[in-house]
Each structure stands twice: as C-alpha cells, then as structure tokens.
Amino acid sequence: MSVLFNISYALVWTIVVFHSYFLLEKMIASRKMMQEMRAMRSEHGVEKDKLFPQLEFKTIHHGIVNISKTNKRGSLIAFTSTGCDQCKLLYPIKTGYFPFVYYLNERGEVETKGVINVREQLEHLVKNSRSA
C-alpha cells in the first residue's frame, strides 16, 4: 500500500510542477505581448510635439469649444468608442484604441498621449506632460 501511495504522490507532484511551469511560461508570454502592445500604442495617432489637427469641437449641446482660446496650461482630449467597430472609421483623428487621450499644451501641441483605462494612468499622463 505504501508503494502505491508513494507512486501516486510522486505523480501528483510531477503534474503540479509541469502545470506550474506551463502557467509561468504563459504569464511571461502574456507580459511580453502587453509590453509590445503598450509600445505600439504610444506611437499611435498624432505625433508628439505636433500641432493637434483640430482645436475647435462641437459639444453635445450644439455649442462650440475652442481649446486654443483658453487660458489654461493644457487640455485633455479623450476619444471613446460608441461600441461600434465600424464607427471607428468615422473619427477624424487616427485613433484605433479606446479610450485614447491626448494632453495638449496651451499652443495645441501634443505633449503626451496614450490609452487610459484607470485613474492612475490618467494622472501619470498629466504628470509626464508637466515634467516634459
């Protein structure tokens, strides 16, 4: 009986070791893919230090906002998806990732940009623009 127990015990630990190894490999591959995607997204859209192509926007209340005529230090422009993959082609700015945010300086030039999913990422984007 003890021989059978030892064999099953060794077999269970062998399975655990192999499972852990393959799980670790999957996590490493996933992390590398996320880093590559993050790098690709940071080069996406309007280039840094270039003038943003549109500084006047219509609001949902049929008003107009002109960010070049504000007395602020900078402006945040965020593009969001309406949930329609085909609608992404309608955006005038080359943005395929959502929500994608640009931080513009007072002259309307892009200082920082990136995909924002949580508040900390937005704070990091604004902090990087002020240190640049």
Short descriptors:
132 residues; alpha+beta; 2 helices; rod-shaped
Topology:
Elements: H1 2-42, E1 56-58, E2 64-66, E3 74-79, E4 100-105, E5 110-115, H2 119-131
Explain what this protein looks like in three dimensions.
By secondary structure, this protein is an alpha+beta fold. The protein has 2 domains: 42 residues; 76 residues, no CATH class. 41% of the residues lie in helices and 18% in strands. The chain has a 3-stranded antiparallel β-sheet. The longest helix is centred in the first third of the chain and has 41 residues. 10% of the residues are buried.
Q: What distance separates the N and C termini?
A: 71 Å
* Main beta-sheet annotation: 3 strands, antiparallel
Low-confidence stretches: none
**Which value, in Å, is the CA radius of gyration?**
24 Å
Can you give me a brief rundown of this structure?
Helix content is 41%, strand content 18%.
